[in-house]
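Researcher: Here's the sequence for the chain we discussed earlier.
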Amino acid sequence: MSSEYAIETRELTKRFGRRTVVDHLSLQVPRGSIFAFLGRNGAGKTTTIRLLLDLLDRNSGDARVLGLDAVTGARDIRRQVGYVAQDTDLYDWMTVEEHLWFCRGFHAAWDETLVRELQRKLDLPDKQKIRQLSRGKQAQLALLLAMAYRPELLILDEPTAGLDVVVRREFLEEVIELIQQEGRTIFFSSHLVHEVERIADWVGIMDNGKLSYCAPLEALKSSVRRLVCAFDGTPPALAGIPGVLQQEVIGKSLIFTVQDYSPELLASVQQLAPRQVEVEPLWLEDIFVAMVGGERG
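Model: Thanks. This is the structure I predict for it:
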């Protein structure tokens, strides 16, 4: 396994009884990237993260984080990784100031100057009881705690789950700003695809425990296209067209999404003799649905 990756797994597998939740996962997350780890609820994203942080025992395979084995190097990994879980447990009877003081003692690399700067930017008042903070502010405090010791890798597991649309957008804008300042590797797990598109430069898509795609975001968006083909009569079957992710027939139109779009593929479509062909780029959310949602119609 290579040190150029912040996270690298090989055939990583986790089963709960007869159910395989992470299925021979081979994943590479480049250092310095903002990596969106996407999948529907139950796809295996959170289980993968817990395996990386040695919070679960793996059944087979290997995993390395920042060049260290996820099991034998777990203690050193935790010193270099900031982690924001979906349901972060904060001591809600403490004030913000008391919670920061409490956590400071666990991290030799705690950067008090950075903490105060982040606290000011996130508008987290010292004397406020955590139980009195909104869910959005509690999520921001969890982010601050994860960044307070300048980790090499920041892992965010559905950090905006349960927040309303406005608060989620504010949270992500703050993440973007902090990421740009720090230049760290970010591993960002989410099922809210349209929101992570704004900050990610790499994408991995999990489906039923398997990694179905992993590449730079722009490479994914440039390779997937929706084709709208109008025919004079009933549309023909798509026999011989490679990489079809999703298709449907509406009247005399055949609408389908393809991966690895190319001029050669378009030439194959033209052989079906459509009256008109429109080729459309897609947002990441549409691509995600096409990849994990299967065919329609």
